[in-house]
Automatic annotation (TrEMBL), chain A:
This is Thiol reductant ABC exporter subunit CydD. It comes from Corallococcus sicarius. Residues 19-296 form the ABC transmembrane type-1 domain. PROSITE patterns: ABC_TM1F, ABC_TRANSPORTER_1, ABC_TRANSPORTER_2. One of its GO terms (cellular component) is plasma membrane. GO terms for molecular function: ABC-type transporter activity; ATP binding; ATP hydrolysis activity. The chain crosses the membrane at residues 60-77, 135-154, 160-178, 235-260. Keywords: ATP-binding, Membrane, Nucleotide-binding, Transmembrane, Transmembrane helix. Pfam families: ABC_membrane (PF00664), ABC_tran (PF00005). Residues 335-569 form the ABC transporter domain.
UniProtKB/TrEMBL annotation, chain B:
It comes from Corallococcus sicarius. This is Thiol reductant ABC exporter subunit CydC. InterPro entries: AAA+_ATPase, ABC1_TM_dom, ABC1_TM_sf, ABC_CydC/D, ABC_transporter-like_ATP-bd, ABC_transporter-like_CS, P-loop_NTPase, Type_1_exporter. SMART domains: AAA (SM00382). One of its GO terms (biological process) is cell redox homeostasis.
Length: 569, 590
């Protein structure tokens, strides 16, 4: 379905708001026509009879009432069309939010996130013009010109015929010239956005440009690009504006033609003055809505482009189909990968191929291997962020795919490479993992991850606000806090992804000691690391290598002795 | 950071440059509507005279006039659109280059802190907001005022009383409609901008924290937050829409008021014989035609709010304020290579006066030709130190020398030839890999590029790319992992071919094998070049000629303790020696 049609369908889904906005717009348009008719009547009487002003009383009263009604309608129409836009935007917003979370971090993280955020914020905002301006204007442009032609034809057949002949040329020419110009016009539009993107790129890369001494040079590039764009765009606009020129020509020339023919007919006495005046007043009302519609062409085009991106996201297939009858989550954490291959859609090579692994309950396994070999993919699969394209994962014999995702995730604690924190207090962030935990318990765990002295130095202690995304903490502190949060969570399976990458070796050793104590004997641990020190947590080290897809389990000893370690326990 | 006032100053300073074109555009806009008014006047006159049965010959002039003004209006509108768009582009070019120049003159430290807060992308969207400043904000009131005066003057030609009344009614529309819109939406524009920023932040959190949100079962909490932020945005937008609607309604009322105010007077004049009856209708229809000029005002007011907010933000950043600090006389001379590639003595630095010192009393030196490693707890100021060396745009106290020259005395070009830096999150541009690499050495041959790529362990990766060196990078191109990104930046820095190479955790995201390869290449650069590398990784520490440890003791006190080269690091040196910091920094030279 074309994006514009789908947008229309979305608007119709909010039936009440849709009908209210469009009917008020239509009625406002009709009122404009009626107001012109009453004015023509008043002026004709004034011209023909030259009465006292007071004698025009009833007509004047009707006119004033019409004007006030139309003013109120105008205001209400703007409000209603805004209301319609707001309703549709809010619905899309919620849908997109749910969809992106359902697609999960495997889809949303990384460089793509910038584009996704732009789509979710500016993209949805660009739809506003479609619902609040383009759509109502289309209704007006569809109804009012027809109404005017009919009204004129009823009063004066000849003038009606003239308008009926002139008016269709407007859409015909707009389509003819528009079609020709549109392709170029759209390319130009894309070019404009690209130029803005270049500007953003250069500004964001400015520190880098300065480092390599190329920042002054870009000043010329920006100036040149903008100038070149300006000259080519003006060339295109010369054609694009032709459709507006035709519209204007048809509008003004048919008004002029009407005035001249009416004048001649008035002299010969074949038409009444009031009718002539009415036709003259109504003719511009025919073209005004078309002109207003043309002025919103760009807003409509931007909305269609944005809609295309939004709909593409909403239509993105979910990798995991929800089961009709989900199985209960087993309490024993025996995790088994059977010949698991994972190849994300669109990726030329699998990120993990033929992976076999069995982790017994309470076992601690470390995954090592060169970057890009699929260690994080293993964790993603367990977390349900990705689905295997071949093979299966069993939890105590039950396929992971048959487990209800939310219940399963409750059994898993995870420390990612860049953990997320809410912009609330330190305590709130920890309590998210274990609601109702006592302060003493929190402090015990914080001490184990070497955050004790850090918290002690904070004047507000556990009540310290963490700031946006926890940015008031350093990278290493955030990592330790994430560990604390994961350990606090009462989950039998713990997944750690490079949990100490930002710690210096002394702190790392101490933190790992704490983690070891907190793990106890029951928790199952799967750990991904590049660093040697965390390997001490593991009972078994599994080496993933790109070349041999079926990976045997190695012992840790070789790896442990390869690099010197700092900080002994 | 001077006048952060209304933002108007900044806008004028940009508009001043393109004013001739803007004036022509405004004139054309006025003439367009004027022809429309004239068309109405002449056609009304035409049918009124015709209704009085004057001979057809007497109508000839009016008939020609009607056709002339009809053509004029269409042609002038076309011209006006071309000229105003060309002026808009000129203004846009001016704004872009102006902003860029101001940002370019900023201290890199300041730029980086702006980049973190997403301020830079806001600069870009602010400039985009201002793109239509002339078309949407400046042109409508200028043209409206001109048309109001012209129309009233025209009517005054028949009767001063009519002219005055026309001025009064149109004046109400000219002033009241925008004023009402302004009054009703006051603060809503700023509120909307602010709410949209919070909404965006909520989305950033949703997407970047998606994994943790799902695992902690906090999706609902997040959905509630984004929903809440959206409500705030929409509340502000609703006020704005309502205000705009009110402004439009005032326009409608003024249109209705015109006949009510002008017709009684005109009738009276006709009855007294002071006005020909043929002109009666025209006296009412002309001001109504002029209303077209007033239609854009409510929208202009609304855009004005957005534009001023955008301009104020740009101005608050110090953009458009001319240049930054005055250029100092800088040396271009290449000093003779001294014994030390870099020296710091009692170095102190903080990002601004209200913040604590990041570096306080840092002293150390790196001998020319050594492979030095800088390690220590996160937050100790290691990255800051590297940036100071590579960017050295003042702000620090104490001494900081590159090859015997004070960094403050080096101009950008000289510094670029002396020192290259690979940051933790290097930027790759929307361009091919080749262009991204060549940035550091514009004339580099493919052979040179491949050599640098090999040193950064990128050869296999490049071979796997669809278009090799011509593959597209950046936002619109390939999605690079953190490790790949850093290696591309490393290759770029190697191409820069500087005697001193500064690396900030270049191997943090590499596996052991790749790391060994990269380290071996870096090591081989010495002693022709000097390498200073910030790292925590044992492999790097193991192959360093010298290791410095920065410590975060108590507050932000720092000591650098050299470790003998090639000594395996069984013991954490900081734990022993850090306990009794030595006092005379000069003795720490390797």
């Amino acid at each position: 379905m074309r994006p514009e049609r789908r947008l229309g369908a979305l608007a119709r889904a909010h039936r009440g708001a849709f009908l209210a906005a469009l009917s008020v717009s239509a009625v406002t348009g009709v009122f404009a026509v009626v107001q012109a008719a009453v004015l023509a009547h008043l002026l004709a009487r004034a011209f023909l009879e030259r009465p006292e002003w007071e004698a025009l009383g009833p007509g004047v009263g009707a006119f004033a009432a019409l004007v006030v009604a139309r003013a109120v309608l105008t205001w209400a129409g703007r409000r209603l069309s805004h209301h319609l836009a707001a309703r549709v935007k809010a619905a899309l917003h919620g849908e997109l939010h749910a969809k992106l979370l359902a697609l999960g971090p495997a889809f949303t993280r990384g460089e793509r996130s910038g584009e996704l955020i732009a789509t979710a914020t500016e993209g949805i905002e660009q739809l506003d013009a479609f619902f609040s301006r383009v759509l109502p204007q289309r209704v007006v442009a569809g109804l009012v010109p027809l109404g005017v032609i009919v009204a004129v034809a009823l009063k004066d057949g000849a003038s009606g015929a003239l308008l009926a002949v002139a008016a269709p040329w407007v859409p015909v020419f707009m389509i003819l010239i528009g079609k020709q110009a549109q392709a170029r016009n759209e390319r130009q539009w894309v070019e404009l956005r690209r130029m803005a993107a270049h500007f953003l790129d250069v500004i964001q890369g400015l520190p880098t440009l300065k480092l390599v001494g190329r920042s002054r040079y870009q000043l010329e590039v920006i100036g040149r690009m903008t100038e070149r764009f300006a000259s080519t765009t003006l060339g295109v606009l010369r054609v694009a504006f032709l459709s507006a020129l035709v519209l204007e020509l048809v509008a003004t020339l048919s008004t002029a033609l009407l005035a001249v023919t009416l004048g001649v007919r008035l002299v010969s006495g074949t038409v009444g003055f009031e009718v002539a005046l009415l036709v003259l007043l109504l003719a511009p009302e025919l073209f005004a809505p078309l002109r207003a519609l043309g002025a919103q062409h760009h807003a409509g085009m931007a909305a269609a482009t944005a809609a295309e991106r939004i709909f593409a996201l909403l239509d993105e297939p979910l990798t995991r189909a929800e089961r009709a009858a989900p199985r209960a989550v087993p309490s024993r954490m025996q995790v088994r990968f059977e010949d698991v291959t994972c190849q994300p859609p669109g990726s030329p090579v699998p990120t993990l191929e033929g992976f076999e692994l069995t982790v017994s309950p309470g076992e601690r396994v470390a995954l090592v291997g060169p970057s890009g070999v699929g260690k994080s993919t293993v964790l993603d699969l367990l977390l349900g962020f990705r689905e295997p394209s071949r093979g299966r994962i069993l939890v105590d014999g039950v396929p992971l795919a048959a487990l209800p995702l939310e219940a399963w995730r409750k059994q898993v604690a995870w420390v990612s490479q860049c953990p997320y924190f809410f912009d609330t207090t330190l305590r709130d962030n920890l309590l998210l993992a274990q609601p109702g935990a006592a302060d003493a318990e929190l402090m015990r765990i914080l001490r184990e991850v070497e955050l004790g002295p850090v918290i002690a130095r904070l004047p507000q202690g556990l009540d310290t606000p963490l700031g946006e995304r926890g940015l008031r903490l350093s990278g290493g502190q955030r990592q330790r806090l994430a560990l604390a949060r994961a350990l606090l969570q009462d989950a039998p399976l713990l997944l750690l992804d490079e949990p100490t990458s930002q710690l210096d070796d002394v702190t790392e050793a101490a933190v790992l000691q704490g983690v070891k104590r907190l793990l106890g004997r029951e928790k199952t641990l799967l750990l991904v690391t590049h660093r040697p020190a965390p390997l001490r947590l593991a009972d078994r080290v599994v080496v993933l290598s790109g070349r041999a897809p079926r990976t045997p389990a190695h012992t840790a000893s070789a790896l442990l002795h390869r690099a010197p370690l700092v900080g002994h326990s | 950071m001077q006048d952060t006032g209304s933002g108007m100053g900044l806008l004028w300073s940009w508009m001043r440059v393109t004013w001739p074109r803007l004036a022509v555009a405004a004139l054309l806009g006025t003439l367009t509507i004027a022809s429309s008014v004239a068309l109405t006047a002449v056609s009304a006159g035409l049918i009124c005279h015709a209704a009085l049965r004057v001979p057809l010959a007497e109508l000839q002039l009016a008939i020609v006039g009607v056709r002339f003004f009809g053509l004029c209006r269409a042609g002038l509108r076309y011209l006006e659109r071309l000229v105003s768009h060309s002026a808009t582009f000129a203004l846009l070019a001016k704004m872009r280059t102006g902003c860029y120049r101001a940002l370019e003159a900023m201290r890199p430290a300041q730029l980086r802190s702006l980049g973190r807060g997403d301020v830079l992308s806001r600069v870009v969207s602010d400039v985009e907001t201002l793109e239509h400043f002339y078309l949407r904000v400046v042109a409508p009131p200028v043209i409206a005022l001109a048309i109001t005066l012209l129309t009233s003057a025209l009517l005054a030609g028949w009767s001063p009383a009519l002219g005055l009344r026309s001025l009064a009614v149109l004046g109400v529309g000219l002033v009241l409609a925008p004023l009402l819109t302004w009054r009703l939406s006051r603060g809503a524009g700023a509120a909307e901008v602010q709410a949209r920023a919070s909404l965006k932040a909520a989305w950033v959190d949703t997407l970047q924290g998606a994994g943790d949100l799902l695992l902690l079962g906090a999706q609902e909490r997040m959905r509630a937050r984004t929903g809440q932020e959206l409500k705030r945005v929409q509340a502000a937008q609703s006020r704005i829409a309502s205000a705009e609607g009110a402004g439009n309604a005032v326009g409608v009322l003024v249109g209705g008021l015109i006949p009510l105010v002008l017709l009684p007077v005109a009738l009276d004049l006709v009855r007294r014989g002071d006005l020909g009856v043929a002109d009666l209708v025209m006296m009412v229809l002309v001001p109504i035609a002029a209303l077209e000029a007033l239609a854009g005002l409510p929208l202009a007011v609304q855009s004005l709010g957005h534009s001023l907010a955008a301009a104020r933000r740009l101005q608050a950043l110090g953009l458009g304020a001319g240049g930054a600090e005055a250029e100092r006389t800088l040396t271009h001379a290449e000093g003779a290579p001294g014994p030390f590639a870099l020296e710091a003595c009692e170095l102190r630095f903080r990002y601004d006066a209200e913040q604590p010192w990041v570096l306080e009393g840092t002293s150390f030196a790196v001998r020319t030709g050594t492979f030095a490693v800088l390690t220590g707890e996160s937050g100790a100021g290691k990255s800051t130190l590297l940036h100071l060396l590579a960017e050295a745009q003042a702000g620090h106290e104490g001494e900081l020398q590159l090859a015997g020259q004070d960094v403050r005395d080096l101009d950008e070009e000289t510094r670029r030839r002396k020192v290259a830096l690979v940051t933790q999150s290097p930027h790759l541009f929307n361009a091919t890999l080749r262009d991204n690499l060549r940035l550091a050495r514009p004339g580099a041959t493919d052979a040179e590029l491949h050599r640098a790529a090999d040193a950064a362990c990128l050869t296999g990766w490049i071979a796997s790319l669809p278009d090799g060196l011509d593959s597209w990078m950046g936002e619109e191109g390939l999605r690079l992992s953190g490790g790949e990104r850093q290696r591309v930046a490393l290759a770029r820095a190697l191409l820069q071919d500087t005697p001193l190479l500064l690396l900030d955790e270049p191997t943090a995201e590499l596996d052991t094998e790749t790391e060994q390869h990269v380290l071996a290449h870096l090591k081989a650069l010495c002693p022709q070049r000097t390498v200073l590398m910030v790292t925590h990784r044992p492999a790097a520490l193991a192959c360093a000629d010298v290791t410095f440890r920065m410590e975060l003791g108590g507050g932000v006190r720092m000591d650098c303790l050299p470790v003998e080269s090639h000594r395996p690091l069984e013991d954490p040196p900081g734990r022993h020696e850090g306990a009794t910091p030595r006092q005379s920094p000069r003795t720490f030279y390797s």
